[in-house]
Amino acid sequence: MSKTDWNQYSLETQAIRAGQNRTQEAEHSIPIFTTSSYVFNSAEEAALRFTGKQPGNIYSRFTNPTVSAFQERLAAMEQGQRCLAFASGMAAIMAVGMGLLKAGDHVVCSRSVFGNTVLMFQNYFGKFGVETDFVTLTDLSAWEAAIKPETRFLFLETPSNPLIEIADIEALADLAHQHDCLLIVDNVFCTPVLQKPLNLGADLVVHSATKYIDGHGRCVGGAVIGNDELIENNIYPYLRTGGATLSPFNAWTFLSGLETLAIRMKAHCDNAFELAKWLQQQPAVEKVHYPGLEEHAQHELAKRQQSHFGGVVSFELKGGKEAAWKLIDATQLLSITANLGDVKTTITHPASTTHGRLAPEVRLESGITDSLVRISVGLENINDIKADLLRGL
Predict the structure, then answer these.
(1) Given 3.40.50.2300, 2.60.40.10, 3.40.190.10, 3.40.640.10, which CATH number is that of 6-104+179-259?
(2) What does the domain layout of the chain look like in residue ranges?
(3) Which of 34, 103, 147, 283 lies in the 20 to 30 Å Cα band around 259?
(4) Mind listing the pLDDT tens digit for each residue in 29-56?
């Protein structure tokens, strides 16, 4: 780990400099350490490493210099004490559950999370005696009413996927702590460039690095950030044993993604804001979901909690699923894919893709109608994006 206090530097500088520990080769770029194991100088040193009495690399399932560099850099940007990286965003959420939960525990989760997150809490943690109640993201009284003596943590995404609703992180953190619970926030849509949940009272932050952190649709990975004690005592033991390991190559890719993250996020937000305003003017569009619009229910909260409004826009079309699919199929430039956070604009139909495995009544309860289209606005010229959408509008 670097001895530098990265809190004295701005996020843009952290994103470029944090985490690098040069080898004797004095390289300027962080290298990829493609090794599964490490050689010890003696049997005693090996024993000290394995017992944790001496710091250093042991085995790349849980210690690797390239992965460590990514972890240190992202922790600095989120202003957390420690970060652990995982093989995917879902693996990161699994690690949180496996590290913190036991049979008989209870979780309160936003209804407006990624479909696979819902399925993980319901179908997998539920198998092992963990109960989950799902509540409306923006209804603080619903969160409070759902908390039980067995509740271990509250879990949410903000902004939400795909309706871009905003939760009051500070209020939820206060509520969780009043009931001796933790607050865990998935920060994938905002990244630390737009929002820092730990500074607002959250206990853990989760990322799918696959999205904006990579930014180019190349690799899959995830991360969990929090204070050292919480990570060391709960999340790290699961990583060491469970093996949901981020590869050194993917960590290296994410490191380069972080270097341009601040610049990219500003450009994503600028394009998304302009697109949202333009979509409001289209006769075929019933409603636009984007927190930058004054009509958005949490517009003022988004202004207070985030530094910008994000790069994802969703909207509902007149004509239901037929109109949504027609629009998507008519595009020639946009990529029809469920991934987001890419420099290339992507378009998807959430009801039949990201949330398609949920029961229809669950989707409707979450506000995900058949007419809903989600766009992750990329960095192409905004006029070209508009022109492509006009083919189907």
Answers:
(1) 3.40.640.10
(2) 6-104+179-259, 262-390
(3) 34
(4) 999 999 999 999 999 999 999 999 999 9
